[in-house]
What does this fold into?
Amino acid sequence: MASLIRTENITRSFPSGDGQEIQVLKGLTLDIPAGKLTLLKGRSGSGKTTLMNILGALDPPTSGRIWFGEEELTAMSEEARGKLRRRRIGFVFQSVALIPMMNAYENVEFALRLAGSRENWRERTMECLKIVGLSQRADHMPQEMSGGEQQRVAIARAIAHKPDVIFADEPTAELDTHTGLQVVRIFKELCSNEGITIVMTTHDTGLMDIGDRVYELEDGAIIHAE
Ligand SMILES: Nc1ncnc2c1ncn2[C@@H]1O[C@H](COP(=O)(O)OP(=O)(O)OP(=O)(O)O)[C@@H](O)[C@H]1O
Ligand SMILES: [Mg+2]
It folds into this structure.
């Protein structure tokens, strides 16, 4: 499998308050296969979100190197990193952060505006709502939709600017098993039909079979990869 992102021995430390440092990521070497679904699992506090923020170019590692395609993320200026993030990366979070005053259509279109997309906004917005199965809900407000539907709008919004990769941090945590599975199925379809790379963290052991690649973290280290 060709990889989209590769890391070499990345660490992340945070100041602990008493002048010491706590090392949260302890030298991770991994690769994220292109066009596939990768799952990051592990207990609360094992470092999943910290790793995801680093892979998603939101936060730099304390040491180690990261490549995004051919480019070395850890060698870029902050400005170049921000540009890469806006153009090539999309995020989906645990609590759906749709803008409450905007309907589904407007929430997705707004993301295209922000990304400065050159696509036809109307066409691309409707296309993304269709991909997540919500064409009929374009004019619904967030509070008129179920949690699963809102999360699907958030996915439509994350893919609108055609990123190479989507990072989804516990996107199913607030959904029931059935609805969570629906969201993961949409991710699988995005991989196979649109060629998007997806990285998702989860606690849900029922979802593990669905990942093309699974990394298990414990205490900031990879203890299992398959
Ligand atoms: N900004 C920060 N400053 C200090 N410590 C931090 C910071 N961010 C994370 N940590 C610590 O790093 C460890 C890993 O946190 P992280 O959020 O990555 O875990 P997680 O695996 O995502 O957990 P969860 O499943 O609960 O979301 C925790 O012990 C946390 O307290
Ligand atoms: Mg987390």
Notes: Residues 3-225 form a domain with the Rossmann fold fold (CATH 3.40.50.300). The first helix runs from residue 48 to 55.
